[in-house]
Amino acid sequence: MTDTLFAQVLDEASRADPYPLYAQLRRTPVSRQGENLYAASTYRAVTALLHDPRISSDERKSRTGAGALAASGRLIEDGDERRPGFIFLDPPEHDRLRAVVMRQFTPHRIRLLGRHVETLVDELLDRRAGQTTLDVVDDLAYPLPVTVICELLGVPREDEPRFHVWATALARTLDPPEGMSEEEVARAVSAAAELRAYLVELAGQRAAHPRPDLLSGLLTDASGDRMNPPEIIATMALLLIAGHETTVNLITNGMLTLLRNPEALALLRERPDLITPALEEVLRYDPPVQFRTRTTLTDVELDGVTVPAGANVALLLASASRDPERFPQADRYEPLRQDNQHLGFGGGIHYCVGAPLARIEARVALGALVRRLESPRLAADPPPYRQSASLRGPRHLVVEAARVT
Amino acid sequence: MSSPAAPGRVVIVGASLAGLRAAETLRREGFRGELTLIGDEPHEPYDRPPLSKQVLAGRASPAHTALVRAPDLEATWLLGEPAAALDPHTRTVTLAGGREIGYDRLLIATGTRARPWPAAEEAALDGVFTLRGRDDAERLRAALAAGPRRVLVIGGGFTGSEIASVCRELGLPVTLAERGPAPLSGALGAAAGSVAARMQRAHGVDLRANTTVMALEGDGSGRLRAAYLSDGDVVEVDVAVVALGAVRNTEWLAGSGLAADARGVVCDAACRAFDADAVVTDDVYVAGDVARWPHPHYDGLLLAVEHWDNAVRQAETAAANLLREPPAPLRPHRGLPAFWSYQFGVNIKSVGLPTIADEVVVTQGAVADGRFVAAYGRQGRTVAAVAVDSPRWLPAYAGFVAANLPFPPDLHASDAPDPLRPVPAGLALDDRATHSPTAAVTGDGPTASDRSTHRDPRSPLTAPPL
Amino acid sequence: MRVLVDLNRCLSYGQCVFAAPSVFRFHGAESLEYDYAPGRALAEEVRHAAAACPVQAITYAEEPSGE
Ligand SMILES: Cc1cc2nc3c(=O)[nH]c(=O)nc-3n(C[C@H](O)[C@H](O)[C@H](O)COP(=O)(O)OP(=O)(O)OC[C@H]3O[C@@H](n4cnc5c(N)ncnc54)[C@H](O)[C@@H]3O)c2cc1C
Ligand code: HEM
Ligand code: SF4
């Protein structure tokens, strides 16, 4: 498998603009893209599969293994206590674990964090005040979500440099194995082990001295279906990575999109309240999570193609959200778009747990950038991209401005 | 929209969900002419589903369920007076007070009303209620808030079951009498009904299945005192809620020459009304609870659907077709019926038409856990699904129904019972349930007149013990 | 203001409950209930909720139209 369209999507050369490839992929809603690999590209096909009980998120059920698997059970030796995070599990286990987490993810807790987000954003941008350049990634989009997720979970912020490396290595494994080198897999394996050891130790501390954080909450949950210790560790790892590698891209992709669409930027400067629909449109137009892979539990016929049992199917969320059959002017960024039923946070039972938090962070961060950068412009277009094809976003986004206020 | 043939005056009779949605669609599609809505209720359009749920439970005020409406509707609202007659030849609607309103195109959206208790003197007793509108909800809520000794709910359809659920939430003793084998059995079948029955009993409902209420009895001052059940019991109650399904509001169309009877107004899939000679009209349209139409997915059998979703979508289709200028194609109203309810703390959603099924199978989850999806089959194909506290799966099942997936569906779902156990759905019960099902096939021809169908709900299916 | 949720479309994703907890809430595990007529002070939250709903089931009108 060298030159299928999906292989080209995975190729780093396409990272800056995979959308023309998606347009080609949409000519066939469900297409074969490799030995045991299919891709669903249209809005109709992707939404159908997101809700389809014949489709599994458990990579262990694939004939060949779906992702590069570090974050899943593949890197777990037999008899080991480790298990996949619930993003890689199916009902009924998935539903039970997710429900336990949702008990901790209360609107109240998110609200409190949201208030803190405003202060954090101000502090981060104050550090650049008076200057004329800023790297959206390093100066705001990365540190903000990391600080917030640490606070939510109860992970010490000072340990960030350590788990940053682990999170990046593990997030990379969401890409199919075809796109990864042997070395990267090895890196992910050791990252998984180190992250786990770190979390086990932290859990020990919190069990002894609970705090008002999510980890302590999971450990002290007194309900009948509470998580056992290995499940808590797996869930913490999932939340840590998910909170690390996604929101950064939403903020960055958002700023990039606005800088490429000056009318939209001007509109938001005038009407800051429109940031809400403008952000939803970023989630459609240039989403941080481009695709997720699934596995068929039985033969599934869709749009005239039969995907055999045990095959991997890449659900191209980013392609579906650009489907002109669903969205008029799909390739245009329209901050006031109506009926924007995008798939930026997925859909069905695995719909993003962190969406409410990510929305607050991105709204506040992007709103502040719009407000506080005078006459901003891109230093490089396209900017350099990070490696991952599925969790896609710029590595740096240097903006030159008359002034950061 | 400035073609010479464009209608100048559109009149909508029935100013509720379907009527309002049609009016909004007309404006959205560019209609600039005169728009008149005629409604017999004095209220502006409001939402009914909360009336049997949060409103009755006291979590929302009956006055606060008004529907969102487009700000720029520019319509004339004639509220508080019913339309009494229609003359399609002169294109005139006559109001009860005699006023005549002319139209170029008409939309009929008069919906349904609650089927009353058949014995008028008993129905008039203080303490006997029905529930369809806001005022009904206001009265019933006050009666429940007064703390009656016991409430009797007559009929275990969705509305009756929801009312019983609210009573239990309020801590009120409640008896529910259902002529069929179980609550919800008319809409979802006896098999699913048995799950509902367990749920009701677990919540403390005194459920009397296979039982009818023979008579209601008042005390000397005309207050409800007791009810006589076909199982021989006499229950002392202060409040009885008659939840026997709905009657279509078509009386005002008598003499209009349209194919309208107690089962509804017949229209085609483009929502154009048929006249009594089965000729389709091109200036009278129908939408919502009052309509019957041949659904493309169900072999042309006439469908009547008393669901919120259908009212909205049929109204939108009717309005778009009403404005259409040939040669633009007509839009078919073909979406699958879909419904939601919640009661006893669980969310119940369905898609497709369970009432035509012969078999049902749990495909995901477990009944015992209170979260599951069940698929319904007819002659080997999947025709409907019901999701209990599992709404996020339902869109897939809508796809399965639309695609006529074989039944039982071979899903291999990770949470499927192993093996799958299809059972008879328990629907071929010949109109047993006390309430009418809220989505059903109602015959096969536009002109077939109503030899009505509805038996006296008081007559039990088997002889009561003497 | 006025709010209306199409509960057929609603798949109980709960995003509205996070965005506007004093307007939207769950009754039981999966059944959404909401305030049809929240005060004007909640308008911004309702806008957020409507934008966040993954199935775009929420409509609202800031001014109850008085025709
Ligand atoms: C208590 C209750 C709970 C419900 N719960 C649910 C639920 O959970 N899920 C669901 O899917 N559906 C539910 N429904 C059904 C849903 O509300 C109906 O499908 C919907 O209201 C149908 O809208 P409609 O406009 O067609 O008819 P209606 O809402 O019945 O409106 C018809 C209007 O026309 C008026 N009218 C009648 N005759 C005349 C006349 N001659 N002249 C002028 N006006 C006239 C009526 O008074 C009424 O205002 C419920 C209904 C009720 C009553
Ligand atoms: C902009 C930021 C984010 C985006 C675009 C995003 C996107 C997604 C998507 C598309 C999925 C679906 C995966 C699938 O279907 O397989 C998902 C799942 C998930 N996300 Fe996010 N996410 C973001 C932020 C977050 C944050 C901040 C957290 C944690 C606090 C988080 C936690 C999760 C979890 C736990 C799941 C798995 C849910 C399940 O399997 O039930 N996400 N996310
Ligand atoms: S966000 Fe939308 S789908 Fe989710 S509960 Fe609210 S209305 Fe329902």
From TrEMBL, chain A:
MF terms in GO: heme binding; iron ion binding; monooxygenase activity; oxidoreductase activity, acting on paired donors, with incorporation or reduction of molecular oxygen
Gene3D superfamilies: Cytochrome P450 (1.10.630.10)
Pfam families registered for this protein in UniProt: p450
Keywords carried by this UniProt record: Heme, Iron, Metal-binding, Monooxygenase, Oxidoreductase
Coiled-coil annotated spans: none
Record InterPro entries: Cyt_P450, Cyt_P450_B, Cyt_P450_CS, Cyt_P450_sf
Organism domain of life: Bacteria
The family this protein is said to belong to: Belongs to the cytochrome P450 family.
Name of the featured protein: Cytochrome P450
Organism in which the protein naturally occurs: Nonomuraea pusilla
Automatic annotation (TrEMBL), chain B:
Keywords, sorted A to Z: FAD, Flavoprotein, Oxidoreductase
Entries under InterPro entries matching the protein: FAD-oxidoreductase/Apoptosis, FAD/NAD-bd_sf, FAD/NAD-binding_dom, FAD/NAD-linked_Rdtase_dimer_sf, Reductase_C
FAD/NAD(P)-binding domain residues: 9-315
GO molecular function ontology, one term from the record: oxidoreductase activity, acting on NAD(P)H
Keyword Oxidoreductase among record annotations: yes
Pfam (any one): Reductase_C
Cellular component GO terms, alphabetical: cytoplasm
Cofactor(s) listed in the protein's UniProt record: FAD
Domain named Reductase C-terminal: residues: 339-413
Keyword Transmembrane recorded: no
Region of interest (Disordered), ranges: 416-466
Signal peptide: none
Protein name: Reductase C-terminal
Natural source organism: Nonomuraea pusilla
Lineage of the species this protein comes from: Bacteria, Bacillati, Actinomycetota, Actinomycetes, Streptosporangiales
TrEMBL record, chain C:
Pfam families cross-referenced by the UniProt entry: Fer4_13
Keyword Ribonucleoprotein: no
InterPro entries associated with the record: 3Fe4S_ferredoxin (IPR001080), Fe-S_cluster_ET (IPR051269)
Cofactor: [3Fe-4S] cluster
GO MF: 3 iron, 4 sulfur cluster binding; electron transfer activity; iron ion binding
Record key words, sorted: 3Fe-4S, Electron transport, Iron, Iron-sulfur, Metal-binding, Transport
Residue ranges the record marks as coiled coil: none
Signal peptide region: none
Annotated function: Ferredoxins are iron-sulfur proteins that transfer electrons in a wide variety of metabolic reactions.
UniProt-recorded name of the protein: Ferredoxin
